[in-house]
Design brief:
By secondary structure, this protein is of the alpha/beta class. The chain contains six helices and six strands. Helix 1 packs across helix 6.
Amino acid sequence: MKVFINPGHDRVYDSGAINPVTGVRECDIAAKAGKLLAGYLQTAGLEVRTLQDDSLALVCAESNEWGADLFVSLHCNAFNTQARGTETYYKSFNGQRLANFIQSQIIRSVPTIDRGCKTGNLYVLNNTDTVAVLVEMAFIDNMEDLAILENDLDKMVRAIARGITDYWTA
């Protein structure tokens, strides 16, 4: 199985959300999560490619040209410093299945709030030719969620990897 991982945003042009207290950037958390996820999936015997880039058109084109079986975009949410939790977006029926496997594993693995799986009209979901999900791991602007991202990121990423392998073997 070929999994294309897109750590959200870009370290140079668009860092994504930023924690207003600590300055921690979404792009840095996503990059670390993407590297961990790639390692776990490769260890499980899956083929992996990773691309973090400001151009979503390029990201989707690379995934499509490679012929990925799954596309996983990793992000950190932000809203009002009060919102918390994890949510996974999908577009297709099989995307919903993958989202459910990932969300379920995350909720069982780290002390996050289950915001559920949701359909999303998001560029990466609309422009990939394969089963695609976007995981909003936690709210980077909320200090409790930031603690999860900083202290339990490895557990969360292992859960995402299990969700992917659960989907593939189901």
